Every structure is written in structure tokens, then in C-alpha cells.
């Protein structure tokens, strides 16, 4: 059988990894796919650099030339960004081609439109590399867990921010230095604020929630808070209390609706997830029949991401002669059964909290604080008062609360910040026990 012909959009970190892995494992991949997979042409802006890397591949500067080329069967989009990428993918589908993409931003923001067009054209859009790099989480959610009702997912799904948090905790390196290292290693997005402000994790969470709960993508509804405001102090206090801080993406089905949130989170240090360090990602899925399952592996980088891209290429190669009605649906549920689910606002979310307050060290201050919390029915689980330095009268108090509704904590923070005995803003970090029930 003739090899399937690939048009590659982008020859950067992921594109090069894809070429390398396809070449290195060509024999095994052909035996698995049932036919060869051949890169017919590729697009990159810097032609000389791309040619230098892959002199045997026809390289063009205009990605539309790849998409429009009649010889191409599958377009692999590893260029990134929203436009012209959206237009390129829609054009590829409309001209009868299949698409493999690693572009979570595009799918989270325009996936509903892209899947609708794919449905019309009978095209496949495969996107394993878009969530958690090399970890096969899409296949797991979409195929491995089809027997289950998924209850919640909590994941470390941004390698760059996990790398930064790990390095800050273990080596005491500065935020900026570690971010630069992550960029040099090819982990960060073209715009690294996506990584550190939680946007990239929100993109990935949007995709996982759609697949888990059979609903359309709702990126605009994800509560998104990144790690840029975290201080070394909070990382250290959390440690003293037996916790680690991780940037988590959390989605949970409740009787009132679905939670969609990304934020720094204290998790007990004894949990496996707390010990996932560096660029590693981990996704914990709680499903009713299976129970809790943790998938862990490299979440970014050239070859780990290429592993997912090539797995998709093999899937598409195997499936592209199959009747579209009998393929695995893009979002796990048959398109006509996708349904809107209410999405909870952050005010409605129930969780526990870490609060750090800088207070004036005099009698009665603690009583004022605990009265406010008691009035709002927030109960305290643990408290830590740091020693004041010889010269300062302001001391740090750290409190861990039991589970409560976010609306109550917001009200308590407003009232506590209004006390004269409290200086500056109160730091609030959410906590999750990640109990498996
Ligand atoms: P890079 O910036 O390393 O590579 C992008 C490539 O696309 C480059 O070869 C660039 O060309 C080319 N390109 C960009 N715009 C155009 C254009 N308009 N015309 C032609 N070529 C273009 O990005 P990555 O490989 O890191 O990421 C690619 C995608 O994969 C993104 O969507 C990213 O979110 C996703 N991803 C990345 C991961 C990672 O670990 N890096 C992991 C998972 C997903 P040139 O080099 O000449 O400028
Ligand atoms: N910038 C992303 C990360 C790449 O750091 O996780 C993988 O999606």
C-alpha cells in the first residue's frame, strides 16, 4: 500500500520532534499503522533553518501551499496561534484532508466550530498532543473510560509552571531565571504569559472537560489564576504545614453544574501528585466504576510531544478508510448527544483555603479574625503564627480552613482586610485534599 502523505505546518520544537521520531521508529510505525507515513512537505517561516534541519523535505514559507497541495492526505498543525491556523485547519478539512494538531489554544477557543466542520466533511481531527504533552490522556478519557461516569479531573497540565514551581522550591532559583530555562528547553508557549498566568492550563482543562462531560468547549467560563503572584514565603509555609503548591486544572461535576478552574493549589505533600516535579504532568481522573487513576509523564518538550503527534498519525492512518459514522467521536460523545451543562461561578465552588495575613502583634487581633470567620461559618483547620523579627511588630499568620463556599471566603477576606490590625492584602490559595472518594 502507498504511504500516507503528511503536510507539516511548523518545524519548531514539536515539528522537529515529529520528524525525528517518525524517522527513527519508521519500521515499527509502519508495522503498526499498516502502511508507511511519509512527510511530503513542510512549512516554516525561516526557510534556511528548516532546510538545514530537513534537507530531504520540500520546505515552503506559505502554509496554505501545504494545505492546498493535492498530494497531502493528513495535515499536521504544529505551528501554534489562532490565525491563520484556524483558517488553515478549516481549509484542510473542507478539501477532504484529515488533521492532527497540538494546538490547545485553537481547540479550546474554536474547537466547537472545527469539530462541526469535521463532522460535515467526514474529516478526523486528532489532538492527543494538545493536552499534557506525551501523556495519552485524550485516548484514556475518550476511549479507555467510556464505561464510566467521570466525576472529576485534577491535573498538573502545564509543564512550564510545574518546572518553575519545582525549581523555586528545591533550588531557590528566581522565577525569571527558571522561566528562561523553560523557554530554552522548548517547554514554554510562544507567549509565556499563557504558561505562567494559567491560560495554557485553562485551554487544556476546557478540552478535557468537554470530553469528560459530553459538553461543548467553554474556555470563556474557566476561572484562571496563574503562578506569577506566588511568593517563596507561601511555598515555604505550605511546606511547613505538610503541603506542596501546584498549579492545578480542576473540573468537577456537581449536582448544580460543572466546576472549571485553574489556580495554584495546596495539596498534601504525601499525595503522588505533590511529588510530580519539573516538566512532568499528572492527571488524576475520578471515574465511578474504575475509581481514581493517575496518569503521569512528560508534559512538554520535543520528543514527548511528538510521541503523541505520531500516535495520532498512526490512528488516523489506520482509520481514514473507515466509515465516519463508526469512528471514535471527536469529543467522545456522539455530536448529537453533546449537551450544555450549567457551569458554576467561582463564588459557588466549595473548597478549603490557605490564608496568609500580616497582622499587628497585639492582644485581641486573633479574636477579631476568628470572629469574622465564625460569623461567616468558616471553620479553621490549622493555624501557624510566625515569630516576629526583633524590629518588626507585624507577624505572619497562616490559617488553613475546612471546606467552605468561595463566596464566604471572599466576604471574610473583605472584612478582615478592613481591620486596622491587618496590613496589606491577604494571600489566599485554594486547597484540595485529592481524596479518592
Ligand atoms: P515553535 O515556535 O517551536 O515552532 C513553531 C513553528 O511554526 C516554527 O517552525 C515556525 O517557523 C512555524 N510557523 C509559525 N508561524 C508560521 C507561519 N505563519 N507560516 C509558516 N510557518 C510558521 O512552537 P512549538 O513547536 O513549541 O509549538 C507548536 C504547537 O504545539 C503550539 O500550538 C504549542 O502550543 C503546541 N505544543 C507545544 C509543546 C511544546 O512542548 N513545545 C507541547 C504541546 C503542544 P520558524 O521557526 O521559521 O519561525
Ligand atoms: N507550554 C506548554 C507547557 C507546552 O509548558 O505545558 C505543553 O503543552
3D architecture notes:
This protein has 437 residues and is of the alpha/beta class. 37% of the residues lie in helices and 25% in strands. The protein has 15 helices and 17 strands. The protein has helices at residues 13-24, 26-33, 47-53, 63-68, 85-94, 104-121, 137-144, 159-171, 175-184, 193-196, 199-213, 232-240, 302-319, 365-375, 406-417, and strands at residues 4-9, 37-43, 58-60, 74-77, 98-101, 125-126, 150-156, 223-224, 243-253, 258-268, 280-287, 291-298, 350-360, 380-385, 394-401, 404-405, 422-431. The strands form 2 sheets. Strands 7, 8, 9, 10, 11, 12, 13, 14, 15, 16 and 17 form an 11-stranded mixed beta sheet that branches. Strands 3-2-1-4-5-6 form a 6-stranded parallel beta sheet, with helices on both faces. It is elongated and about 80 Å long. It starts with a strand and ends in a 6-residue tail after the last strand. Residues 10-15, 43-46, 49, 63, 78-80, 102-103, 129, 133, 186-187, 189-190, 300-301, 305 line the site of NADPH dihydro-nicotinamide-adenine-dinucleotide phosphate (NDP).
Short description:
This protein is α/β, with parallel strands linked by helices. It has helices at residues 13-24, 26-33, 47-53, 63-68, 85-94, 104-121, 137-144, 159-171, 175-184, 193-196, 199-213, 232-240, 302-319, 365-375, 406-417, and strands at residues 4-9, 37-43, 58-60, 74-77, 98-101, 125-126, 150-156, 223-224, 243-253, 258-268, 280-287, 291-298, 350-360, 380-385, 394-401, 404-405, 422-431.
Which small-molecule species are bound to the chains here? NADPH dihydro-nicotinamide-adenine-dinucleotide phosphate, L-homoserine
Largest sheet: 11 strands, mixed
Q: Tell me, what's the shape? A: elongated
Query: Span between N and C termini?
Result: 50 Å
Mean pLDDT: 96
Overall strand count: 17
Briefly note the structural class of the backbone. alpha/beta
Number of domain units: 3
What is the count of DSSP helices, taking H or I runs of 4+ residues?
A: 15
Write down the CATH class of the largest domain: Alpha Beta
CATH architecture of the largest domain: 3-Layer(aba) Sandwich
Helix coverage percent:
25-40%
CATH topology of the largest domain: Rossmann fold
> C-alpha Rg, in Å?
24 Å
Corresponding CATH superfamily of the largest domain:
NAD(P)-binding Rossmann-like Domain
Strand content: 25-35%
Low-confidence stretches: none
